[in-house]
Amino acid sequence: MAFSRLIEAAAAAEAPTIVIVLLLSFIFYLRRRNSSSSITRLPPGPFQWPVIGNLHQFGRLPHLSIQHLANKYGPIMWLRLGYYPVVVVSTTEMAKEFLKTHDLAFSSRPKSGVGEHLVYNYKSMGFSPYGDYWRHIRRVWMTELMTPKRLSSFRSIREEEVCSLMRSIWEKSEQGRVAVNVSKAIDWISSSIVWRTVAGKKCSEDRDGKDLCDMVKRLMLTVKEVNGREIIPCIGWFDLQGVTRRMKETHRIFDGVAQNIIDQHINGRKREQSSDVKDIVDVLLEMADTGAINIQLDSIKAIIFDVLTGGIETATSSLEWTMTEMVRNPDIARKLQQEIESVVGKHRTVTESDLPNIEYLQCVVKESLRLHPPAPLIFPRESTEACTVGAKRYVIPPKTRLMINVWAIGRDPAVWEDPLTFKPERFMGKDMDIKGRSDFRMLPFGGGRRGCPGAQMAIGNMELILAQLMHCFDWRAEGDPSELDMSEALETSLSRKHNLFAVPTLKLLNCI
Ligand SMILES: *[C@@H]1O[C@H](CO)[C@@H](O)[C@H](O)[C@H]1NC(C)=O
């Protein structure tokens, strides 16, 4: 996260300006504090400094910083990140208060430069505030784009891409002689599936395709930079022009790509793909065409934005962790392979219809998401009204941001037995909801109304790719697997700090 860099930037700026800014904000801060303390009973929390609030207590891995604070102040805390008041929640019970009892009050999103400049003035479902537009676009997602029927219509895309991944892995490993960059393979498959599903295109074949991949990376970095800057507006303003310029430039590039995709779909249809699978852009254009559902061009582009930025990196980092756990825990990997084999046999590759029959596979995916959620803190929500929470009846004022430490919840020793051990068996025989609707013991997809709309698609993809990788190959780390480096790095999602390399050995000829 950019917090520490923000503070460095502040220190580097001219000292007199800083002093004035500090003084002004301190006065402002005292006034705010006086005006609000009489009516609210806020949760406990550390002292808040003027201007920066508690920013100095955040390191490069904010979920760890928060857990550290929560050990001292408890499962619900009151902090300030720069200018913004934040309520921070670190247990299942508290998460339930916010995602179930007060889900509606906390269903909005803060205003943001990304929302305004990058996604067509809040047309993206991810960045749009609570209201009619958001409800409308959410209905489009839930009733048109992410229905089981629609998802199964993309099945051939997934199966084709996964098969070609297996061949590519075997080639890259020079028939099992050298280690492959597993991180790269996973990155490639996640991008390919999402791009084909949304736009009927592939991202990494030719030059044109490489540009597409780079564009998504650029989008993600811009979102991260802008959100970081906005935490302390008065420091962000030092380079506001520069940031806004970069954001507009990124917007221009994205808009060009999105317009191009839409044009190609309208005239002459998509070039390369001969398959008759309707991709997401097809579906949206058809809706716009028939007028069955009111959807404007900007909304279509914003949906493309949401799918690309929400669906690729998160999937990549999740699967990278799952494969890491497989390499690190050979016994579990072997058990998974046996379970797959007992359903699929040794003479054909896994298909999607096999997946529901391999319970252990689902457990491995869940266990991996529990320990390694791609978004360790949910994307901040903002309250639109005051609400009273918990047994101590804290009053949370409107316009408070909500942060849930998903990472800590998944590792809470009060909820999980032996929480740091990778043990898929804990999910056997339990049909546990992991989408944050009825169960709040792990929240890899957030939860409540603002939960990730693509959760089902993400889980399905993970299961298929993992099953195929494990059915086709045995995997071996170079060196001692139990010493595999497990450091985390928070870029745009919580991924491995170092890329994973492993040597595959072919188990099934049909795979290549
Ligand atoms: C491995 O793949 C990752 C992700 O694509 C990439 O960033 C990295 O440079 C690759 N490492 C090597 C040594 O090729």
Automatic annotation (TrEMBL):
Pathway: Alkaloid biosynthesis; taxol biosynthesis. Coiled coil: none annotated. CDD domains: CYP71_clan (cd20618). It comes from Taxus chinensis. Signal peptide: none annotated. Keywords: Heme, Iron, Membrane, Metal-binding, Monooxygenase, Oxidoreductase, Taxol biosynthesis, Transmembrane, Transmembrane helix. GO terms for molecular function: heme binding; iron ion binding; monooxygenase activity; oxidoreductase activity, acting on paired donors, with incorporation or reduction of molecular oxygen. The keyword Aminoacyl-tRNA synthetase does not apply. Its cofactor is heme. Pfam families: p450. GO terms for biological process: paclitaxel biosynthetic process; secondary metabolite biosynthetic process. Heme binds at residue 452. The chain crosses the membrane at residues 6-30. The keyword Oxidoreductase applies. This is Cytochrome P450. Belongs to the cytochrome P450 family.
